Amino acid sequence: MHLLAHGGMLPHYQPPVGEKTISPRRKGVKQGVLLMLIGAILVPIFGLMAGFAPGRLQDVFGFFAALSAIIFFLGGPLRMLFAAIFEEGAPKYPFPMAPTYPAPVITPPARVSALPPQAAPNPAAQWRQRPQTAEIMQPPSVTDSTTRLLDKEPKNE
């Protein structure tokens, strides 16, 4: 409908001019990705610190490594999922309706009251007879001569 209304071209609509704001859905997905990226940095750092720390500090850094892994790698995807399901997306731009056209007036064709004159029949004398294909001799088969060669007995010398 839109293609016909615009001469076969897709209409190009400009978004409303003004301050561009990020939708809450996109903002939530970005927050989830950021959580996962921060986790990809902090978890290995805490793991290295736990590996090289002496005594009780090893347990503390190990706990922080495990806690940050749970928070960031579980919280990031959950934040993205929550944003995708429950938060509002980008606003829809109004799509203007195509102009309405008046219905075309169709005039019925003039009615013909009589049939056209009958055409002259084709005389059968113009047709030639079909050839008798049963009388045409078929060429010999290619395999006949080789089959005959197999029937001959070899000469013993």
Q: Count every beta strand, where a strand is a DSSP E run of 2 or more residues.
A: 0
Q: State the assembly state of the protein chains.
A: single chain
Coarse structural class:
mainly alpha
Strand proportion: under 5%
> What does the radius of gyration come to?
44 Å
The major sheet is characterized as: none
Tally of contiguous helical segments: 4
Task: Report low-confidence residues grouped into runs of 5 or more.
Answer: none
What is the element string, with H for helices and E for strands? HHHH
Mean pLDDT: 80
The helicity comes to: 40-55%
First CA to last CA: what distance?
Answer: 93 Å
Keywords:
0% strand, mainly alpha, 4 helices, 157 residues, single chain, flat
Account of the protein in words:
This protein has helices spanning 2-5, 24-52, 56-86, 142-151. With 157 residues, the chain is mainly alpha-helical. The termini are far apart. The mean pLDDT is 80. The radius of gyration is 44 Å and the shape is flat. Helix 2 runs antiparallel to helix 3. The protein has a domain at 24-86.
State the gist of this model.
The protein has 157 residues and is mainly α.
Write the topology of this structure.
Blueprint: H1 2-5, H2 24-52, H3 56-86, H4 142-151
